[in-house]
Every structure is written in structure tokens, then in C-alpha cells.
Amino acid sequence: MSIDPQHVANVFAEMADLIEIKGGSEFRIRAFRRVAQVLEDLPDPLEQMLSDKTLQEIPGIGKGTISRIEEILKTGSCADHQQLRSELPPGVLEMLQVPQMGPKTVKLVHQELGISSVDELEAAAHAGQLAELPRMGAKSQTRLLNAIAAYRRRRGRCPLGQALPQAEALAALLRALPEAKRVDIAGSTRRAKETIGDIDLLVTGDEVAPIMDAFVGAPVVAELLLRGDTKCSVRLDSGLQVDLRVIPAESYGAALHYFTGSQMHNIAIRDRAKRSGMRINEYGVFREPSGERLGGASEEEIFAAVGLPYIPPELREDRGEIEAAENQQLPQLISTADLRGDLHCPVNGVSSAELETLVDVAIGRGWQYLALTPRFGVGGLDSQAFARYLNAAKVVREKSQALRLLIGAEVTITADGQIDISADLRQALDWITATLDVEASAANPTERICQALADPSIDALVYPTGRVLGTSDGNGADIEAVLQAALANNVAIGISGDPLRLDLDASHCRRARDLGVRLLVSASAHNAQTLAQIDYALLTARRGWLEPDHVLNCQAIEQLLKPR
Length: 564
Ligand code: DGT
Ligand code: CA
Ligand code: CA
Prior knowledge:
Layout: H1 5-22, H2 26-40, H3 46-51, H4 63-75, H5 79-86, H6 90-95, H7 103-113, H8 118-126, H9 138-154, E1 158-159, H10 160-175, E2 180-186, H11 187-190, E3 195-196, E4 199-205, H12 209-216, E5 221-227, E6 231-236, E7 241-246, H13 252-260, H14 263-275, E8 278-281, E9 284-287, E10 293-295, H15 299-305, H16 321-326, E11 341-342, H17 352-364, E12 369-372, H18 383-399, E13 404-413, H19 423-428, E14 431-436, H20 445-453, E15 460-461, H21 479-489, E16 492-496, H22 506-515, E17 519-522, H23 534-543, H24 557-560
Helix pairs in contact: 1-2, 1-5, 1-7, 8-9, 13-15, 17-18, 20-21, 21-22, 22-23
Bound molecules: 2'-deoxyguanosine-5'-triphosphate and calcium ion (CA) (2 copies).
């Protein structure tokens, strides 16, 4: 597998949290958090920056840090990390996974009440003990109980953007085997559901044993859960479970269709077959009652047997796709080749070198335009840094012949439904994306967003719900009202490919499509490396039935710029 800087960053962030809970050195806490931040925003691949020694030129990255990073890359952890983990009960770490439980609160409940697990935390909240702690209260106690419930619901499901790379790496490992004739990802991962329970892989090949041996022996496999004649299940280091099935070629299509699901879609297809005197299962299509085999080698044969065209996996939820197929009205789903650029790019680093790298990657994807939208104000660049960005971006724009660079910003919507940006700056920018700052937003999210959307200088609303998968349900705005306001004001709505957001989600994409709201498929990249996240936004758009016509960044640049 490729080197994942995010994992290394997570280890450093966790070490900082652990030190904070134990009450250790402020200096070390800050130092480790800084390293985590640096690793998340690397301008170049980590592997390369280690080998050409550019990593250690970044302030805050010393010799000790480099050797810790190397250790983490080799073993997944480092000695300090292991030591810190051993000093606290494991349940204390788990509490950090609960939304709203930062290290400060975990420390507070651990020290004051001796709470060492999520279960104990829940019991204490029910007993009203938390409300008596400093900085807590009855309200935060209720919020915490909701957060624990949300955590329990989501535990075990992994965001698509984290599961898909793991599925693809395993599929690549299997494809490299001479015995494997065909390998596919199935299940919810193939349907691009926003969270994944487990990964399902399908292989067909001449021999089962060598394929299973290679799978079980993969470096990322932590534990073998089950090994049968045709099925094998493992748990990965990441905690994800993977089911592998080895299928004979003649039933491969039937199995791929069956194990892609969804279950509701399968049931609807089987019922349809039954009505025509056929039986469909994971082994094939059969005439009833004779049992004569009619097909099953390809998925197309399954659909053809029930008189339907091929239905793309992202639509297979029994949410109208079978009727649409029957009426020859399946959407011509958007694909990578339809994208002409990205219009939401909240870059962190804004030096001309970083912007040039980004432009190069965008050109490499065949794009014609790119809107830079660093966050301005709250949680982003201050006026001075923004001025430096404007200068750097102009230099890069001058040089960029192959790609039209739009100089923009991501601005936050204030408590009174305004965007906090001067008239001069509005004039200077080609493109403005707005978002509600979730941290600061409690009251009237719907009104504030809708009011802001009436501002003619806003081109797009990004992170419309503000949700973070597994952490936060978001800003609480009434999304239907927001979509209506976007339609009325001709503002596009972003679909973020940020693996933890996928915001707007697929079902609201479909609603936006039906209303006629324009959408924007975006990587929401913070740097050149994360531009590839656009794939997750694209998959979400496909699950939302979107065609190129519904998506702003499938249009030519002349068609999408508003007059300023
Ligand atoms: P997940 O893993 O929870 O994210 O969702 P899936 O859809 O990947 O579900 P999974 O892994 O349990 O099973 C993969 C597919 O296999 C599922 O989408 C449909 C099919 N399948 C599994 N169990 C049944 C069943 O009892 N009946 C039918 N009709 N299909 C099933
Ligand atoms: Ca699955
Ligand atoms: Ca499964």
C-alpha cells in the first residue's frame, strides 16, 4: 500500500491528546499537534519529502520527529505512542471518539469522576453527575447523551473515502495474481454508499487456494476471521472487515449482481424474474420449473433476463431505478471525463510554488479551469495573509496558459446572515463560495443561510449541511429551504469529496436535481494531493442521479461565471 500521511498525522494527534489527558508537557502537546498539522498539509508526497530530506526543512520537524515518522511508517506506531497508550485505560481513548469529547473533557471526567469508558460516561450522564462538573451543565449533559447515541449508531461503519482506497489496494493485490482472472469490488463500496459496513470482494479464477493464501497473507490483514471453501473473511489493521468470495466463471455475473446489492434492489429484481417464470439467485438465472440455466456469467445477462438495460451500481437501491430502466429513463450519469474543473479549492498553503503544483495536477487531470478558494476570516487567512495569497495567485494566473485560474475565496456566513468581506475584496475576486461556520452556528441556521444566499456576490454554497461523518450531524439547517433559496438566487450547491463530509449527500443531490438547483462536484482540496478526493464527490453525485447538465463544473467557463 502507498504511504498514508494521514495515518502518521493521526498517530501524532493521538499522542498529543494522550499527553493532554495525562496532564503532561504543554510544549510536547503543541509540538505533536503541529507535526500532525504539517503532515496533513504536505505539498509533496511524504515518501519523496523523506527521501529528498525536504521534510526536515519544515519548521517544527526535527530529527526526533523524522525518526518517529519512519518508525510509524514501518510499524504503524512508535515507542512513545505505545508507551502513552499503555499508561491509560483503553476506554479513555475510546471516549475521545465520541463527538464533543475533546481531550480536555476526557481529562476532566477521568480525573474528577474516575470515568474510564464510554459506558461509564453514559451512566454518569444519565445519573446527572456530569452536569455538576465545572464548564459542564444540564444542557451539555443532554447533548453528550445524544452524541454517545450517534457514536454508537455509527461505530463500525467506515466513511467511503477511507474504505474505497483499502478496497482498491486489496483488489490490486489480487489482480496481480496469475490465478485471478477477474477481481471486482462489490457491496456498498461499489454502490458508493457514504459509509461502509464491510468490504466485499469477488474473484474468479482457476484455483481457490493460492488466491485465498495471498489475500490472507496481505500485509494489511490483522486477523483471519473465517476461511471456507469459497468465502474468506479477514479484519484489516484499520479495523475494517473484508469478505472475499471466489466464484466460478459461469456464475460470476450473478454473484457480482447479488453481492453488489442492495438487498432491496435484489429482492425487486428477483420478484420481477419470478413474475416471468424465472428464478434469479447468486448462481445464475434459471427457467422455472425446469431449472434450465439461462445465464449468469455477466451482470448484463441478469438485467437482460428481466428485460432491463444495465443499471449502474450507484443506483441500485430500489429507489425508482427499476422503473426508470423499464421506461428507458435511466440517467446518463456524470463521469470523470465530464468534469472540466473544480470550483471549490480551500487551499491551506498559498505560496506561488504550492499554487503552481496544484495547477499542474489540475492540468494533468485535463481540466480547463480551477477556482482557488482559501478560507478568508474565521479559521482561515487574515487580511495580511490573504493579500499575500492574492499576489501569489496573480503571478500563477499570469503563467498559467493551459488552465484558467479563478482567484476566489471561501467566506463564512455571520450570525446576521451576511458574509464578512469588504466591497473592495468582492470586486477583486472572480469566485466566492460561502459556508456557515458550524463552530459559531447555533441559532437560526436556515434563516442565516437563506439570507446570505440573496447576496449576489456569492457563487456557491459549500458544505451546505456542515456535517462531519461519524462526528457531527451538522448545522441543523432545513436543507429543503436552503435548496429553494439556492434555486431562487441562482447559487450553486457544492458536493464536497472531503472523505469525512460528502456534503451535500446523495439523497439531497437527487432532490436538488429534481428542483433544478445547479450542483458543483468538488474535491474541496486543501492541497495538490487531495485533489483526487473529487472521485468521492463524483460517486456521491452519481448516487444522486446527476447528469453532466446538472453540474456546474461540467460546463464551459463562459457559461458559469456571473457578471460582476
Ligand atoms: P454494508 O456492508 O453494511 O455497508 O452493506 P452491503 O450492502 O455491502 O451489505 P453486505 O456486506 O451485508 O452484503 C453485500 C450484499 O450481498 C448486499 O448488498 C446484498 C447481498 N446480500 C447479503 N445478504 C443478503 C440477503 O439476505 N438477501 C439478499 N437479497 N441479498 C443479500
Ligand atoms: Ca459490505
Ligand atoms: Ca459483507
